[in-house]
Amino acid sequence: MADFAEITIDIMLRRTGNNEARIFDFGTGETECFYLAIEDNGKPVLVAKHQGETRRLAASETVPANKWARVRVEINGSAASIYIDAKQVAKKDFKFNPPAVFPGDATEGNFIACGRNKTGFFHGKMDYLRIYRKVHDVFSTLGEVPLPLTQIISKDSCELAQQLSADWQKRRGEKEAEIRSGKYGEMQTEIRQLNERQKTFLKTPKLAELEDRRRQTYRNRDRLHQGIREEFDSLPETKKAGQRLQELRENLKALTAKLEKSHPEVSKLEESVRQTQRSLDTARKLFTTERQTRRKDDFANVAKEITAAEKAIEDEKKRIEREKSKELGEIASRIEKLQQQSNDLWRETLSKAGLSRNPYGGMADVNRMQYQQNLEYHTTADWDERTREEISGKVTPTMKEWLLRVRGY
Question: Pick from 272, 289, 323: which residue ends a domain?
């Protein structure tokens, strides 16, 4: 399961002991293997043994104790790396090819959470150990492995998970209500009061007067547009076109109620309605453009008034902020501090109660179970040192490239 020319091994674990322990040990013997161990100082080390040679890569940092951590090992045949929580803590040239320790005539011995001699047992918990047959340039872009492929869901466990999830959600809701009624709620109330106090600094008579002036300039602009629309609508030809359009629509409605949609008269009348509407829209657009051009000075003056009003309001706000900079700064600082403290209180309280994250699948388990029921599972795999095609000399170029890439020889 680990005989790939390139390999990435991703582990989520929580170590509780300080003993030297092996996370995994893959190979066919004590002298033909590669393994990841955590030494008694907490630092992970990768060791590869092959044909009497031993290669070693030690990390510069420790795997955190008593908390979940993600450890990843990457080997590509020429170099190896170790990561802890997505941070690279070791890398160097590492001339080692994993398939080399899996000769076809040897019995494999792959171990997780202990060494092959039943020593170096890992003390703690493991959430998963995943093996990828490639070293990816940016591992984080792969995303999470689909759960349907890593956990089998039965009907009984699915129903139990839904009940447990509902119970967990209920406890979470009760705890959140308790948090809001205590110190956290007091902090949120103070934050709202401080936000309101900030707003009062901008509620000055002068600023209110400037905002009224701005609203009036927008109304002036709207009146110019409305005047053009009313002038167009009052034109004799506009009224005539509107009446014609209304008649056509009424005729179309009456005819549609009597005839099938496929009748030629219906289609012809519908086209007449569309053409009349398009003509009216085009005339309105041309008229509006002509009147705006004719009254461009009026529109330009209104635009200047709007710009001046906006600038006056902005200048007044800046003046207020300069005069009240100390008070505003103190309020902003207090709000930031309260937000940080309340967020920390929220997270810590839920964490201590074991309610940070719902560990039960609920409806997600239902979806996974339905998905799994449509999967085709294979329980055996035949993998020898050489394939039948190799023995018979019938390996195609495509298969040869695949063997070199996946198996390494």
Answer: 323
Is residue 110 within 8 A of residue 4, CB to CB? The reply is: no
- Please state, in angstroms and as integers, the Cα–Cα distance from residue 373 to each residue in 112, 363, 369, 370, following that order: 29, 16, 6, 5
Q: How confident is the model at residue 406 (pLDDT cuts 50, 70, 90)?
A: low
pLDDT score recorded for residue 381: 46
* Residues linked to residue 87 through DSSP beta bridges, in sequence order: 84
45 has a pLDDT exceeding 90: yes
Tens digit of each residue's pLDDT (9 = 90 or more) over 164-183: 788 888 989 999 999 999 99
What is the model's pLDDT at position 206?
Answer: 83
Comparing C-alpha atoms, which of 38, 192, 214, 241 is closest to residue 124? 38
pLDDT in tens, 254-275: 877 777 555 667 677 777 888 8
Assess whether 18 and 132 both reside in one domain.
Answer: yes
Tell which residue, 405, 381, 365, 306, has the closest CA to residue 151: 365
Token pair of 10 as six digits: 């991703």
Its domain, for residue 402, covers: 384-409
Q: How far apart are CA 400 and CA 402, in angstroms?
A: 5
The packing angle between helices 325-352 and 155-180, to 10°, is: 140
Structure tokens at 357: 């994250």
